[in-house]
Task: structure prediction
Amino acid sequence: MREASLDRLKAFLTLLPSIVLVGVFVYGFIGNTVWISLTDWGGSGSLAVDPQKNYVGLANYAELFTGFLAGGFRQDLVNAVFYSVMLLAGAIGLGMFIAILLDRKPKGEDVLRTIFLYPMSLSFIVSGTIWRWLLAPQGGVNILPTYVGLDPLTFEWTSSTKAVLEFNWQNLFQIMLYVAAFILILVGLWAFRNDPRKALKRWLGPGIVIGAFAWLGGSILPQALFMEETHGFNLATLGIIMATVWQYAGYTMALYLAGFNGISQDLRDAAMLDGASEVAYYRHVAIPMLKPITISAVIILSHISLKMFDIIFAMTGPDNAQTGHPALNMYLTTFRANDFARGAAIAIVLFLVAAMFIVPYLVSQYRQRKRG
Result:
């Protein structure tokens, strides 16, 4: 008993320096950023030796989501959602497809694996510069048809001002409620076959309640607080999404390929003996077994998509409003406009959005480890 207590004390003393450093330089700085976001630190006197910082509460956050001058931030936030969704769909879908092809052991598998994984070794600045050349309006891929006698393309890959999927900012809260209700009801219908009572209590019931609330009163509060303005998916972001998917598809390919190689060959042979085709094997056996890998890829790529900065800076520069991102907006607000309080508020918004993806994952991992 005494030896166990001594071992715990030694372990604590060994970890103490790391705990102190993480507490000060991670959580301490996060707390300091929260405090700065609640002040009015900014303006002409912000760079003084002892600048004034007056407490203003949540005024900076209210300005970001409801103020007239913060419309650019709101569009950047919408862009970040599209960046995240399309990066997840593109990188995970393409990476899984490539992994399935390589799992079938084609000729030159080692060379192909290296080719697909190579973009991951490049920095975002390098790949962003390359893709900026490729997607130049007067060159790059737009002039490829001229090599076969056709007219060049005229699509403005990173400078287009057109937008699709437009919506009113006042309807955002209601749209989010409808999406949440749809997902809950969809999951509930899928789980209804196995456990109707649990599906109704955990998924279908809450989904119906949220959907009814969105229909009856989901637009009352936003119409009172939010400005009426239009946002949507800017076509100029397509080029950045293509470049990001190209860079991270190899990463997800490596994850899934390692997972496929870890599945026992006996299990595959048994599935084939039972009459499963190649498609059925991957759909019903292999891919469901790699659910932890899929969850890890979603968490990692979601976190990356919320920190996109260098590839946007390299491809379109900091002043292209159509391809903006909250991380880039935070940099410009803080270090170009010297509005440190507003920049800190943007940083905290990004931090909270990232936590929405990471914290549930960490909680589920902790519960699984505790059960084990």
Summary: The chain is about 70% helix and 5% strand.
